[in-house]
Write a structure and sequence with these properties.
alpha+beta; 2 domains; 3-stranded antiparallel β-sheet; 10 helices; 9 strands; elongated
Length: 327
């Protein structure tokens, strides 16, 4: 498999530079985005097509596969770009393979009078003056990108002022209790714990935190983990209390008092830890899912907008202007 450095070097030789996890540049007048989705590479050519028209992509795919059957795998019309999927061979220099594929795609487009995109990807008007990484490398008006950035910044600042750790914590507590209810019902109605239900606790706590507009930061997952652990302790406490209630013939309140005293002993702590290991493992799955969701949604929209703005470059950048790669 090709290393990222080898691919970066090969594309840099062609005037296509790395921006984050993608590569962008201009090829034969087309704004091009190269993405890696192991083991394939996706070449996006900025054009303007009717997304419902599948005939163009189908005919281009047939032409490309006939010319390069081992490299070209597919072609799809996305409306604002044509996406082609390729694979690379180890024995042939990567730069040569990318160059051949890019040339073949550009030639196939031009032979069908599909010209490079000539309208702004933001406002749709003609005569774009810049290129920008906005859902792929696309022609834009610099003023449009600046306006979008400012609007996003003001909206994000307004949202951030409404966010609070306090409201998020309250929402997480409410969500955690909602997630605990199926476990509580299983204990009260069936005198047993269904371990799989423990995954609901962190998921519901995450839902409550976001629903009550908790502040987006790394502290959010800490709050959810602590509430999830508290939920495990509470459920195990109730399970032991119900067990004592049945074995000793106590009512629920005395049984809970007896359980509280029991759990403060070394034996009681050991029993709770042993009994809760499986529940903790299942809950860890729920915590991981909640963490993945929060990490994905905790990205600062201002940072994302600034990244888009920083990729802005005059329309004549790319292969004919290698200095832009250093900016």
């Amino acid at each position: 498999m090709a290393t990222n450095q080898a691919i970066s070097n090969a594309l840099a030789r062609l005037g296509i530079g790395a921006v984050g996890s993608v590569y962008i540049g201009v090829w034969d007048g087309y704004a091009v985005t190269v993405r890696h989705g192991a083991p394939y590479y996706y070449l996006d050519f900025a054009v303007r097509l009717d997304p419902r028209d599948r005939s163009i992509a189908k005919s281009i795919r047939a032409e490309l596969k006939a010319g390069q059957p081992k490299t070209i795998l597919g072609c799809v019309n996305r409306g604002d770009h044509l996406k082609c999927t390729i694979t690379l061979e180890k024995k042939t220099p990567y730069a040569d393979q990318f160059s051949a594929a890019l040339d073949a795609i550009a030639q196939a487009l031009r032979s069908r009078d599909v010209l490079p995109a000539q309208t702004c990807a933001v406002c749709g008007r003609e005569h774009p003056d810049s290129l920008c990484l906005i859902d792929g490398y696309q022609p834009v008006h610099a003023a449009c990108v600046q306006a979008v950035t400012e609007t996003t910044k003001h909206a994000a600042e307004a949202d951030e002022r409404k966010e609070s750790y306090l409201t998020g914590f309250i929402g997480a507590v409410i969500g955690a209790f909602i997630g605990l209810e199926p476990c509580l019902l299983s204990i009260l109605l069936f005198d047993r714990i269904y371990t799989v239900l423990f995954a609901l606790v962190p998921l519901c706590a995450m839902w409550g935190y976001r629903r009550f507009r908790g502040k987006r930061s790394g502290a959010s997952i800490v709050i959810i983990i602590l509430l999830s652990l508290a939920g495990v302790v509470l459920l195990e406490f109730l399970a032991v209390a119900i067990s004592f209630k049945q074995e000793l013939g106590l009512t629920l309140v005395p049984a809970m008092r007896y359980t509280l005293n029991y759990l403060f002993t070394r034996v009681g702590v050991g029993v709770m830890l042993q009994e809760s290991l499986t529940e903790l493992l299942v809950m860890a799955i729920g915590i991981f899912v909640a963490w993945a969701f929060l990490a994905q949604n905790n990205h600062n929209p201002v940072s994302q907008a600034n990244a888009v703005r920083h990729s802005l470059h005059p329309i004549y950048g790319g292969k004919d202007d290698p200095e832009w790669l250093e900016k």
